[in-house]
Amino acid sequence: MKIGVTGANGYVGGVLVQYFRRLGYTVYEFKRKSEQHDLFWILYDLSGEVREADLKKVEILIHCAYDFRPANWKEISRINIEGSRRLFETASRSGIKKVIFISSMSAFEDAKSMYGRAKLEIEGLAAKYGFPVVRPGLVFGNPSGGTVGGLIQMVEKSKIIPLLQSGKQPFYLCYDEDLCRLIEYCIQNRTDLKPIIAANSQRLYFYEVLNTLAAFKKKKILFVPFPVALIYFGIKILETLGIKTRMRSDGLISLLNQNQNPDFTSTQKTGLNFRPFNLQTLERL
C-alpha cells in the first residue's frame, strides 16, 4: 500500500514515515523541503496548491501538516484551515481510499487557543468528507520531539523550572509507537466519525510530567512559581519585535487551558493499549 504523509518533516510526521516504512509500506513525504530529492519526496506547502497528480500516487493520506508561523487568526485561517480544505477537496477528487487527519487534544469546544480552534475547524472539514480524526495527547518517544522534547531540554539545562498556576494543568500522554499503531488501525478498519483520542487515559499534571522527566534524566529540579501575565506579555513583546521564542503566546494559552474532560469512548472501541507515561515506560524505550 502507498501512503502519503503531510508535514513529514515534523516530529509526528517523521515518526509515522519511519513506522510505515519499517512495515514495508511505500511512503511519500509531503513537505516544504528535503535534504534528499528522491522519488518519495513531494513538495507541499499548506499555503499553496496541492496537485491532484501528486495525490494520485498514494492510496492513503495522513494529514499531519500545520504551520505554526502565523501569529494571528486571519493568517492561521488562511494557511492552515483553508490549506487543509484545499487538500481534502483535492484528495476527494483524486480517488484516495482514506484520509486520516491528525488533530490535537487542544481541539475541543470552548478551546481558547487559536491552535485548538483551528484544529477543531479542520476536524469539521474532515467530518464532511467522512475522514477519520485522531487527537494525540502529548507525544513522547525515543528520542522525543515536539513539546516533550522541549521539556526534556529544559530539564537537562536548568535546575530551576518556572511553574504557572502551580503546574496543575492536566495532560494526557501518548507513546509515539502507540500513536502509529492507532493510525494503522484506522487504515485497516472502519471508524466512527467521532475523534479518537490517542493517549493513555491517566491524567497527569504538568508538574508531574516534569518530575518524571527529571527522574528519568537523574536530575534534581526546583519549581518556582511565576506570574502568568509577566511571561505572556513578555512573549507578546518579543513576537511583536519579530524575535522567535521557544514558547509562543498562543502555545502558552493552550498550556493553561487544557480540556478538563476528554472523551475516550472512541479510543476504547479500538481495543488498543496506550502505555502510561512513567519512569518504567521511559526506561524501556
Q: What is the element layout, followed by pairings?
A:
Layout (H helix, E strand, L loop, with lengths): L1 E5 L4 H12 L3 E6 L9 E3 L8 H4 L4 E4 L9 H22 L3 E5 L11 H15 L4 E4 L1 E3 L5 H12 L2 E4 L6 E2 L1 E3 H13 L7 E3 L5 E2 H11 L5 E4 L2 H13 L8 H8 L8 H6 L8 H6 L1
Parallel strand pairs: 1-2, 1-4, 2-3, 4-5, 5-6, 6-11, 7-10, 8-13
Antiparallel strand pairs: 9-12
Helix pairs in contact: 1-6, 3-4
Rounded radius of gyration (Å): 19 Å
Low-confidence stretches: none
SSE topology string? EHEEHEHEHEEHEEEHEEHEHHHH
Quick one: biggest sheet?
A: 7 strands, parallel
Strand order of the largest sheet: 3-2-1-4-5-6-11
Fraction in beta strands: 15-25%
Q: Assign an overall shape.
A: globular
Note the total helix count: 11
Number of strands: 13
What class, by secondary structure content? Answer: alpha/beta
**How helix-rich are the residues, as a percent range?**
40-55%
pLDDT averaged residue by residue? 93
User: Could you tell me how far the N terminus lies from the C terminus, measured between alpha carbons in angstroms?
Assistant: 28 Å
